[in-house]
Amino acid sequence: NAGVTQTPKFRVLKTGQSMTLLCAQDMNHEYMYWYRQDPGMGLRLIHYSVGEGTTAKGEVPDGYNVSRLKKQNFLLGLESAAPSQTSVYFCASSSIQGMVETQYFGPGTRLLVL
Amino acid sequence: DAKTTQPPSMDCAEGRAANLPCNHSTISGNEYVYWYRQIHSQGPQYIIHGLKNNETNEMASLIITEDRKSSTLILPHATLRDTAVYYCIVRVAKGSGNTGKLIFGQGTTLQVKP
What we know:
The structure holds two protein chains of two kinds. Chain A is an all-beta fold. Helices cover 0% and strands 58% of the residues of chain A. Chain A has strands at 4-7, 10-13, 19-25, 31-37, 43-51, 54-57, 65-67, 73-78, 87-97, 100-105, 109-113. The radius of gyration of chain B is 14 Å and the shape is globular. The mean pLDDT of chain B is 91. By secondary structure, chain B is mainly beta.
């Protein structure tokens, strides 16, 4: 049981380049999330998904797109990277028991946009 | 979701109990208290949650005051590996229309010293 995995672990992009970050979970969770964390700050929600084929915007969605074609995968895309998107990106999936939701996070992807 | 207040930093001697306080004076009746931690450069890790009663698991204990306006996370025998940023988060129960996002404040940086 690998939990939540993220690919790649680290990437350097030039301004204007595109890339896709992959998040995979093997816990059969319905809910998945993408967050970004800037130095010295808390996590901010980019996009999330409540099930296969559905996505929704979070706090800071501009410049990002997502897709959830398979339940176990949640992809985050940057169509035209900007230096302001330099950050650490965390994916999470959550289990729900009754009214309690617990999120499990991946190890993060460190992105540097030059 | 209610706002939380935590001290920015704390020290603890290895092997001693670490008691991390959190104030959530505006908490409402259907809001849970969650604790997560983030070890340097890693994804956040769920620790424990509670509603009214004190809770204990293999990682920690959570003490919630009777009026629910504050809580304390207790790591009974802190080790060097417990050095991390600890986040106290208050969230409404699932099914109350929330998106599931976790609002990470600044947290408490716990330094466990030998």
